[in-house]
Amino acid sequence: MMSSDTISKYSWSDGRKRVSIYVELLDADDLAEEAFTLSSSEKEVSLSVQGSPNSRRRNFALAGLYHTISSAKVVQKKGKGMISIQLQKKDELPWPQLLENKVAALPEDDD
What we know:
- The chain is mainly beta.
- The protein has strands at 4-6, 11-14, 18-24, 36-41, 44-49, 57-63, 69-77, 82-89.
- A hairpin with a 2-residue loop joins β4 and β5.
- The termini are far apart.
């Protein structure tokens, strides 16, 4: 069974018609489009990245998005070591924050 890593470092920006989530992946330029598996619902998005068959899978997930979305897609930012997850807004409303409660779907360890 292959192990996986959680992607927890990201940035985001709010546009008029979509919200963009930026994730740094050092090997992003070397990955084929098939390496990305994206799923979404109205208030959630998740991404699984599988490079070579022997590499660790990387997972990213957010639940409780600030507003609803109608779709999502992955865009590779060639030459930047980054991908962008484009969330298509259901309604053209401003997003002052990415999540309703500012809590990611994947819990952090309490120290």
